[in-house]
Write a structure and sequence with these properties.
It contains eleven helices and twelve strands. By secondary structure, it is α/β, with parallel strands linked by helices. The protein has a single domain, classed as Aldolase class I (TIM Barrel, Alpha-Beta Barrel), CATH 3.20.20. Bound molecules: ligand PBG. Residues 122, 124, 126, 174, 210, 213, 225, 281-282 line the site of ligand PBG. Catalyzes an early step in the biosynthesis of tetrapyrroles. Binds two molecules of 5-aminolevulinate per subunit, each at a distinct site, and catalyzes their condensation to form porphobilinogen.
Length: 345
C-alpha cells in the first residue's frame, strides 16, 4: 500500500475543531510584527481624508503625535513617517531643512513614542521635488531629464543626517539609487550615529499599486520610475539587490509591494541574513477597501488573510495601513467558542 493511499492518514483530523486548528497553526499575527505608515502634511490645522485610501489621513503635527501614541498603545513595532511639504523644488530642499515637515514630525513622533516603538522615516526625495522623482535630474544623452544617481546620493546623505539629528531610529531608504545604503551608512557612522539603523527597500518594483499613495503625498510625478525601480517581470534580480544592500550594511531589507510579489518575498526570506520586511502598499489597501465597501468581500477576513499570507511567505515585519486596526482585533478578548453545531463532526 502506497503511503499516499493509506486511509489512516487523514489531514482533516487536525482541522476538526478550533482548538485542534490552533494547536497546529504555523504562522500567527502579532502587533509586534506590524508597522504603521503615517502621513503628515505641513501647515494643516485639521487632518484631511485621502479619497483613494478610505480611513487613512494626512495628519497635522498634533494628530500625528496622537496617532503615534495610539500605535504604541496598540503594541505596534513601529511607525513609518512620510512628509507632505507645501513647497517643492528641483532638489527637494524641504527634505534636508531641519524645520522641514518630515524632520519636525520625526522629532514629534520620537517624543510621543517615548521609546515604546521604533520611529522610522521615509528617506526619498519624491515628496519634496517639484518634478516628483526620487532624485535630482540631469540632462540625459538626448537632452531629456534623467535621475542622476550619484548627485542624488549626496542629497540622501544630507537627508539621512537631518533625519538622524531629528531623532529617527531607523531610516527607510526607498529611492532605489545604486549604492544608497553604503552612502548613508558611511555618513551616519562618520557623524557618530552608529545606532541609527537602515532599512533598505532592496527589492522595490516600479508598481502601479503605488497609485493611491501618490494622492496621499500629492505627488507631482512626471513620467515614471522605471529607470530606478525594478521591472515587475524580474525575480532573480531581487536577490542581487538584497545582496548589495546587505553588503553595504543594511540592517533590514524590504520587498515592496507585498501580495503581488510573494514569490520574491519567499526567495528573499529564504536567503537574507538580516530581518525581512514587506510593504503592503496603498493599492493593495485600496483594492480590499473598495471591494469591501461594495459588499463584495468580507473586509476583516480579507485584511487578516492578506497580512497572514505576507507573514507566511516569510516577512518578519509587515508595513500595513491596517496595522493599528488589526492589532486591535488581535488583542481583543477571544470570541466565544463556536456552537457545537458548527464544529465538524
Ligand atoms: C517613495 C515611496 C513610495 C511609496 C513608499 N515610499 C512611492 C513610490 O515609490 O512611488 C509607496 C507606498 C504605498 O504605495 O503605499 N517615497
Amino acid at each position: 500500500m502506497s503511503p499516499t493511499h493509506d486511509r489512516r492518514i487523514r489531514p482533516r483530523r487536525l482541522r476538526s475543531t478550533p482548538a485542534m486548528r490552533r494547536l497546529v497553526t504555523e504562522v500567527r499575527l502579532h502587533p509586534g510584527d506590524l508597522v504603521l505608515p503615517l502621513f503628515v502634511k505641513e501647515g494643516l490645522t485639521e487632518p484631511v481624508a485621502i479619497a483613494s485610501m478610505p480611513g487613512v489621513l494626512q495628519h497635522t503635527r498634533a494628530s500625528l503625535r496622537e496617532a503615534v501614541r495610539e500605535a504604541a498603545d496598540a503594541g505596534l513595532a513601529g511607525v513609518m513617517l512620510f512628509g507632505v511639504p507645501l513647497v517643492r523644488d528641483a532638489v527637494g530642499s524641504g527634505a534636508t531643512d531641519p524645520d522641514g515637515i518630515l524632520n519636525v514630525a520625526i522629532a514629534d513622533a520620537v517624543e510621543a513614542a517615548g521609546g515604546r516603538l521604533v520611529v522610522m522615516a521615509d528617506l526619498c526625495l519624491d515628496e519634496f521635488t517639484d518634478h516628483g522623482h526620487c532624485g535630482v535630474l540631469t540632462p540625459g544623452p538626448g537632452g531629456e531629464p534623467v535621475v542622476d544617481n550619484d548627485a542624488t546620493l549626496e542629497r540622501y546623505v544630507d537627508m539621512a543626517l537631518a533625519q538622524a539629528r531629528a531623532g529617527a531610529h531607523l531610516l527607510g531608504l526607498s529611492g532605489m539609487m545604486d549604492d544608497q545604503t553604503a552612502a548613508v551608512r558611511d555618513a551616519l557612522d562618520d557623524a557618530g550615529f552608529h545606532d541609527v539603523a537602515v532599512l533598505a527597500y532592496a527589492a522595490k518594483y516600479a508598481s502601479v499599486f503605488y497609485g493611491p499613495f501618490r494622492d496621499a503625498v500629492e505627488s507631482t510625478l512626471q513620467g515614471d520610475r522605471k529607470s530606478y525601480q525594478m521591472d515587475p517581470a524580474n525575480r532573480r534580480e531581487a536577490g542581487r539587490e538584497v545582496a548589495l544592500d546587505v553588503a553595504q550594511g543594511a540592517d533590514v531589507v524590504m520587498v515592496k509591494p507585498a501580495l503581488p510579489y510573494l514569490d520574491v518575498l519567499a526567495d528573499v526570506a529564504a536567503t537574507s541574513p538580516v530581518p525581512v520586511a514587506a510593504y503592503q502598499v496603498s493599492g493593495e489597501y485600496a483594492m480590499i477597501e473598495a471591494a469591501a465597501a461594495n459588499g463584495w468581500i468580507d473586509r476583516r477576513r480579507a485584511i487578516e488573510e492578506s497580512v497572514l499570507a505576507i507573514r507566511r511567505a516569510g516577512a518578519d515585519l509587515v508595513l500595513t495601513y491596517w496595522a493599528a486596526e488589526l492589532a486591535g482585533w488581535l488583542t481583543a478578548p477571544a470570541a466565544p467558542a463556536a456552537p457545537a453545531a458548527l464544529v465538524a463532526p
